[in-house]
Amino acid sequence: MRKDCRYPRITGVILAGGQGRRMGGVDKGLLELQGRPLVEYVLQALQPQVETILISANRNQARYQHYQYPVISDQLTGYQGPLAGFAAAMQVIETDYMLTVPCDAPELAPDTVIRLLTALQDQQAELAVADDGERLQPVHALIPVSLLPSLQAFLAQGNRKIDLWYAQHQMARADFRDCAGMFRNINTPEQLIGS
Q1: What's the order of all strands across the beta sheet hosting 52-57?
Q2: In the Cβ-directed half-sphere of 30, how many Cα atoms lie within 13 Å?
Q3: How open is the CA angle 156-169-97, to the nearest 5 degrees?
Q4: I want to staple 187 with a disulfide (CB 3.0 to 4.6 A). Which of 22, 26, 82, 158 is the partner?
Q5: Could you tell me which residues come within 8 angstroms of residue 35 by beta carbon, excluding any fewer than 6 positions away?
Q6: How far apart are CA 195 and CA 12, in angstroms?
Q7: β-bridge pairing 32-33 and 71-72
Q8: pTM for this structure?
């Protein structure tokens, strides 16, 4: 794991808690691409970039624990979306920031953390979110754990839309136009076959 005193302490959070509806209900993080589960590609890309990692999963926890990282589940029942995973992670991690990435985006850039952190600092923002040049990629984000009370209040009001929560804070857009392919996540069986 990267331990560099020039940067804040960051936990990588792999979001594997979705229902996988477009994949027929399968757990996308465990789908195989070229003989390896998708989550393994994400883990390999994250390991050099963050201090520690945890996996947010609402099923197949034992399989995810095989990777020897903490596995947490949403406290909100019924697959409430990525913000529920954010909140669960923020309650247990011990670093200043979390970097969130989905389990089905195997081409994570090797400088994801640096890009997000640079945007955060340059734009004097509270949190940073990746932008592929066409739109925001909201689950690729660098978020301070200190925003947990804000997120809990947002969720307690019944809100689940990630963009609306971001809009309550000073948000930096990190430029990922030159590597937009990393956001090509796998949502259908056809996309997996074509990879």
Answers
A1: 71-72, 52-57, 10-16, 97-102, 136-144, 127-131, 171-175
A2: 19
A3: 85
A4: 22
A5: none
A6: 24
A7: unpaired
A8: 0.89
